[in-house]
Write a structure and sequence with these properties.
Layout (H helix, E strand, L loop, with lengths): L1 H9 L5 H12 L14 H24 L27 H10 L12 H6 L1 H18 L4 H4 L1 E7 L12 E7 L1 H20 L7
Antiparallel strand pairs: 1-2
Helix pairs in contact: 1-3, 6-8
C-alpha cells in the first residue's frame, strides 16, 4: 500500500497542469528542460521512475544502517554544558512577511494559488500563515500534506543516455507553506549555536 501511494505521488509531475505547460512550451517552440526516456505511455514511465528512485533510497538506507558508528569528531568535550534548546521561538508576522517576499515567484502543483498572487494578498493572509507556522513550531509537527512534493526527473548531463534511469536524479518542488516553515526553523537552528558559540571556528 505504501509503495502504491508513493507511486501516485511520483506521478504528480505528470499532472494536467504540467501537460498544459508542456503544450504551451511546444507551441512557443521552447526547448524542454530535460529529455525523458522512451516509453509507450506516461503511466508506465512514471511507474518506472517511481520504482527506480524508491529502490535507490531503500538501498541507501540499508547501506547507512550497516555502517558502524565512528568516534565522535567533537573532541575534546566542551568545558561547560551547552545551553539547552527546549522550544522554538514563535514567529512574528513581520518575519513571515520577509520570508514570503524573499521567496521566488515559483509554486508547486500542490499550491492552491500562485506565489505572486499570495504576495499581492499578503496583508490579509500573513496572519493566517503566521498562525500555521507557529502551530507547527509549538506542536513539533510538520503536517504530512506539506511533506508531499511534485517530483521531476532531471537528466544529470545532456550527454548522458536518456534511456538509462540511473542517469536521472529527482528534483522536488515543495509547497510554499512548507518552504516558509523550513526557513523559519532554519533561522532558529542557526541562531542558537551562533549566539552560544557552539559552532566550530573552522
Amino acid at each position: 500500500m505504501r509503495r502504491s501511494l508513493s507511486r501516485l505521488r511520483w506521478r504528480a509531475w505528470l499532472t494536467p497542469r504540467t501537460r498544459l505547460w508542456q503544450t504551451v512550451n511546444r507551441l512557443l517552440h521552447r526547448k524542454s528542460s530535460s529529455p525523458l526516456p522512451s516509453s509507450t505511455s506516461v503511466t508506465s514511465l512514471a511507474d518506472s521512475f517511481a520504482s527506480f528512485f524508491i529502490d535507490k533510497i531503500s538501498r541507501l538506507r540499508i547501506s547507512l544502517t550497516s555502517i558502524s558508528p565512528a568516534v565522535s569528531p567533537h573532541t575534546p568535550s566542551p568545558p561547560s554544558t551547552p545551553p539547552v534548546f527546549p522550544t522554538f521561538r514563535p514567529a512574528s508576522e513581520s518575519e513571515i512577511y520577509k520570508i514570503l517576499f524573499d521567496c521566488p515567484n515559483k509554486q508547486s502543483d500542490s499550491d492552491l494559488i500562485p506565489t505572486w498572487l499570495l504576495k499581492k494578498c499578503s496583508s490579509v493572509l500573513i496572519p493566517t500563515i503566521t498562525n500555521i507556522v507557529n502551530l507547527s513550531l509549538s506542536s513539533g509537527t510538520f503536517h504530512p500534506i506539506i511533506k508531499e512534493s511534485t517530483i521531476s526527473p532531471l537528466l544529470k548531463k545532456s550527454s548522458l543516455d536518456k534511456d538509462q534511469m540511473s542517469n536521472y536524479h529527482p528534483i522536488s518542488n515543495l509547497s510554499l507553506i512548507s518552504k516558509i516553515i523550513e526557513r523559519t526553523v532554519k533561522a532558529r537552528l542557526t541562531d542558537h549555536p551562533s549566539s552560544n558559540n557552539l559552532l566550530n571556528p573552522h
